[in-house]
Amino acid sequence: MLKGKNIVLGVTGSIAAYKAALLVRLLVKEGADVQVVMTPAAKEFITPLTLSTLSGHPVLCDFFHSESGAWNSHVELGLWADAMIVAPATASTIGKMAGGVADNLLVTTYLSMKAPVFIAPAMDLDMYAHPSTQRNIEVLKGYGNHIIEAAAGELASHLCGKGRMEEPAAIVERLKDFFLGNSALVGKKVLVTAGPTYEKIDPVRFIGNYSSGKMGFAIAEECAAKGADVTLVAGPVSLECNNPKIKRVDVESAREMYDAAMAVFPTCDVAVLSAAVADYRPAECAPVKMKRTADDMCIELTPNSDIAASLGAIKGDGRLLVGFALETNNAEENARLKLKKKNLDFIVLNSLEDKGAGFACDTNKVSIIDKDGKSDFPLKSKKEVAKDIVAHISRLLVVLAFMLLPLSASAEGEELNANVTLNASKVQGSNTEVFTQLEESLKAFVNDRKWTTNVYEENERINCNFTFVVNSYANDGSFDCSLMVQASRPVYGASYSSTLFQYEDKSIKFKYQPFDRLEFIEENLDNNLTAVIAFYVYMIIGMDLDSMGELGGSEFLNKALTIANNAQNLGDAGWRVVGGSNNRYSIIDDYMNGAMEPVRKLMYKYHRLGLDTMFKNADEGRKAITESMALLKKAYEDRPMAYFTKLLTEYKVDEIVNIYSKCTPDEKKSVVEILSNINPSLSSEWEKIKRNNN
Ligand code: CTP
After folding, report:
1. Residue 477 — left, alpha, or beta (φ > 0 → left; ψ -120 to 50 → alpha)?
2. Could you tell me if 193 and 108 lie in one domain?
3. pLDDT value at position 572?
């Protein structure tokens, strides 16, 4: 699992440093490349020679190499590593890491680290329990580091309590879990059939084929490496598999393979049928060796059950079935027939027409065919091909998870044309699959949920952009994001939309684990993420309805207000994060405040009577917009700091300047006066109105 992973192991001056030797050994055994960095104090507890011998690399301790004077680049280590482990981590090093005290190579390496960092504290129980240590640990957690909690037990001081460094084997498991973390196959049960079948003619002869089983074994290994529990039903092959996550069932004949596969399939999530199963078997198996009796000989054959087709018949909706086709002619056409006939989700085609593909060799050249199309892959080792196939399975498992969402969430929404983007470029070194999944979940949540019973025509839908920027992500599923929400409604008869709402929410904290379903139950704020999104959606729908009919959005704005009020009452720390006058709560509070009623009425005048009308009758439309500007002035006089008085000017500058490009000087004067008063920072823009000539 850790094969090919570059690990920086930081060792500090604790009695537990002796365990670092075992940790290096275990990591190397798992296939990792380990670079040890020690603090000067650590050398008192374990010699660099031990660790350099075990890791196969010189141990780094000083900023400069003592003899050559060469610089030991912590920056390069930070880029090289897939993960850093600090084990044991003393109270002093934890404090330095939390405080950024970069007085040794280990801490500078930590500060330059782009990969996830795991910290395994080791100290006496009182030091561990001390508020300063606990505070530093919390600080490190807040930076997204993974703390491998100290275990309880007897300590070097002979006291008993919490403070022992976690055992090296457990640390390695934790690291393996992290790298597996977001694989769609974790915990999935997979059945793989592999190899040929032998159909007995008599005690010494059989009908068989050239299948080596290599492809099926490679698939079983790859699924297990991605966290699946695999049952490998293997025909007679001379192959070994050692992964403890693979349960091997050896069979010989097609009938035995059928029985074994049918027995495990009901509890499986995925079945990959790579065995070359004999289609026929001798009708009779002679009890003793058959003798040569005549020149000709006929063996009567009887058909075997088709395992793939039998599983296809009982598979239902929630499982994946993958087949293989080895063809010599009309390859694609034959493969497609099998795909359909056996009810497979996809079929892997290898054609004997291709050199290096098929039975006897270590390479294969395949195409993956499903009902939607075909992807061709180049000639690769069977191990690499297995990776491609399993990656395809993982993708389909994600899709399947969405298809199984409850109906209420997948009913097609009509109000929004929403675009949801998740930008995780700020987060370094994390497994990106979770971000892709979260983005998909968010899209489905916003777009598929039916937020209203109102009927929207295609041209009435509100255009929304939800852009999440992930600031930090921890492997326990904790996200810290900012969210830019932007919404605009189409202008009737015109080809553009006018901004309705725009706001940057600087901090949303929530938890999301791979495949979590994003559900929202009204007034249930268990999930801060869905509550926040539902809040914005209701707010936007409410504002849109306000712009369609005077104060028409009250029902939905009240829903948004209820969410905000509940969060406030619950003291949800994640809710009122920005503080001051400009947060989620104050936005809805602003908008629903009685003093802001002119702003709500303005929406109707501005959008419906103004913009929508302007397209047919410019003067009439502009007149309504001028009336809406007077309402804006009124609201501003009552609540100058309210968010919406600014919003309505800030994001509509160009539009307003355009609207007043043709009007009387008096109209120009009055509107420039109002706007410059409300939003003086844009006065040069408003002045453009005056300069525009009729
Ligand atoms: N298969 C199976 N059980 C069988 C025969 C085939 O599970 N008795 C599976 C294979 O493991 C493979 C797929 O069905 O995944 C296609 O196998 P193939 O031998 O190409 O298909 P057949 O239906 O036997 O067609 P053909 O007439 O080409 O042999």
Report:
1. left
2. no
3. 66
Same domain for 111 and 163? Answer: yes
> Which SS3 state, helix, strand or coil, does residue 238 take?
coil
| Beta-strand relationship, 270-273 and 280-282 | unpaired
Q: Is residue 65 part of a domain?
A: yes
pLDDT value for 325: 94
Q: Which residues pair with 467 in a beta bridge?
A: 421, 484
Catalytic residue among 6, 209, 565, 593: 209
Pocket test for ligand 1, best of 255, 270, 314, 338 (most atoms within 8 A of CB): 338
The answer to whether residues 84 and 157 belong to one domain is yes
- Mark whether 694 is an active-site residue: no
Pair 258, 375 in one domain: yes
- Residue 649 within any structural domain of the chain: yes
For the chain, the C-alpha Rg in angstroms (whole number) is: 33
Residue nearest to atom 1 of ligand 1 (CA): 308
Three-state DSSP state, 532: helix
Pairing of strands 462-473, 497-511: unpaired
Per-residue pLDDT at 402 exceeds 70 = no
DSSP 63-129: SB-TTT--B--HHHHHHH-SEEEEEEE-HHHHHHHHHT---SHHHHHHHH--S-EEEEE---HHHHH
| H/E element, 398 | helix 382-403
Contact 358, 196 (CB under 8 A): no
pLDDT band at 582 (very low <50, low <70, confident <90, very high): low
Ligand 1 contact via 306 beta carbon (within 6 Å): yes
* Beta-carbon count within 10 A of 187 CB: 11
Same domain, 337 and 245: yes
Distance CA 502, CA 504 (A): 7
Whether this prediction's pTM lies above 0.85 is answered by: no
Residue 354, judged by CB atoms within 10 A of its CB (0-12, 13-18, 19+), counts as middle
Q: What is the pLDDT of residues 90-114, one digit of tens each?
A: 999 999 999 999 999 999 999 998 8
DSSP helix/strand/coil, 221: helix
| Residue pair 11/38 in contact by the 8 Å Cβ criterion | yes
Residue 513 lies in a domain: no
Question: In the listed set 126, 151, 179, which residue is the last one of a domain according to the structure?
Answer: 179
Query: Which residue, 396, 420, 454, sits at the end of a domain?
Result: 396
Per the model's pLDDT, the better-predicted residue between 142 and 300 turns out to be 300
Q: Which residues have a Cβ under 8 Å from the Cβ of 21 and sit 6 or more positions away?
A: 46, 50, 51, 54
Expressed in angstroms and rounded, the spacing between residue 189 Cα and the centre of ligand 1 is 22
* Cβ neighbour number for residue 180 with a 10 Å cutoff: 16
Q: Is 580 helix (H, G, I), strand (E, B) or coil?
A: coil
Q: What is the pLDDT of residues 384-395, one digit of tens each?
A: 899 899 988 987
Residue 145 sits in the same domain as residue 245: no
Q: Give the Å distance between the CA of 304 and the centre of ligand 1.
A: 10
Q: 10 and 108 in one domain?
A: yes
Total structural domains within the chain: 3
Tell me if 307 CB under 6 Å of ligand 1: yes
Ligand 1, atom 8, residue with closest C-alpha = 306
Q: Cα(31)–Cα(37) distance, rounded to whole angstroms?
A: 19
CB atoms within 10 A of CB 680: 9
Q: Where are the beta strands (DSSP E) in 142-279?
A: 146-147, 151-154, 160-164, 189-194, 199-202, 205-207, 229-234, 246-250, 270-273
Return the structure tokens found at 675: 């706007």
- Domain extent for 152: 6-179
In-domain check, residue 272: yes
Whether residues 41 and 114 share a domain: the answer is: yes
* Mean pLDDT to the nearest integer, 5-26: 95
For residues 168 and 54, what is the distance between their CA atoms, to the nearest angstrom?
14
